What does this fold into?
Amino acid sequence: MDIAVCVPLTEAQQVRLRRGAEDATLRLCDPADPCDAPIVFGNQEPEAIAANASLRWLQLESVGFGEYAGLDWSRPGGPAQVTNLAGFFADPVAETALAGILALCRGIDRLTGLRAAGDWVGDPIRAELRLLTGARAVLFGRGAINGRLAELLAPFRCTITSFGRDWTEQALDAALADADIVVATVPHTPQTAGLFDAARIARMALGAVFCNLGRGSLVDETALAEALTEGRLAGAVIDVTRDEPLPKGHAFWSTPNTILTQHSGGGFAEETDRKIDWFLDNLTRFRAGEPLRGLIDFARGY
It folds into this structure.
């Protein structure tokens, strides 16, 4: 059985993957290279996946599936299965959200800039600082990330309102009007694309902090930048953007009170090794004909 690997690996990681894959033949390949293998581990380019007539299972190294959504997964031997890393990034992304929220509430981002400029402001800053304790938080998305974030917010005695697939515009807008913090972690779907448009951003409470750690397509970036520049929102934590890398000259590079984490929110030192563990566990399931972890539902798009 051939396995195409499109994940950058160290030599030690390659050895561990080969050992875990037992009698399978591993082929290390560039994501853009066509590779006619029945199993692919990694985010190979959609064009290469579409050309792979032998594909039986694609294990993504991400949660996001959007770039593959329009592909035809039918194959002569039956439809290919696609799995993602659902839940894998819950801890690091939730901790990134908490770190960004705390930094904005306590002025850490501004104080860091003052230090770099050698500018001592001191006491006047005190009146501008806010408490996270007792804040009202709206968590848009009931997946693993916001589930973990709710646990992290619990010691701060935050009042949490969460929305899942059963959300309604009326309920969401009512909650946004009273929220100190709004955190979005939803995937890209036709229902979520452009959801936080200029009108919905305008409905958010004055002085709220907005965090997007799901998909960049969720947000009207121009409207968000304007709300931050005008001071209608107190800050933003932005991990994902519509275009990545963020283009030079984009408003987010200079928008005030904005923490831009450059889609690094899910990162941690052991990330690749844990992805290998996930893949090998699914490989065992695949060989045994058992249900795979993180199986994509094509109808839902995630």
